[in-house]
Write a structure and sequence with these properties.
single chain; 6 helices; 41% helix; 5 strands; globular; alpha/beta; Rossmann fold; 19% strand; five-stranded parallel β-sheet
Amino acid sequence: MAVGSKKILVVDDDEDIREVMTMILETDGYTVFALDNGHEVLKAIQDNRPDVLLSDVRLGDMDGRDICRELKDNPTTRGIPISFVSATHGWHTMHEKKCGANDYVAKPFDVEDLLLHVRRLAA
């Protein structure tokens, strides 16, 4: 399966992080669309369903865990793998598993580590 057929949604309120993640993922052959806030996620997913969602935990307008819960509670979006990419360290202390997230990548992230997580989730 060609990686280029896989779509990744990146949600982060930091423009630099969005741009870096987009560049890394596009260089690896993914189609990437990026948002700077959580309120647009549900509409974006309806318009262009991603194969993987990468989200910061703390967005300017809402908490990424709330987005995760909403997506995992909806039968039409529950199968989308979600990984948090956050500077707030600690998978267990952040309670991401309780919202149904599939993975966690700590910022600052290693490029190869990020790609390994995405490749696994997109498989």
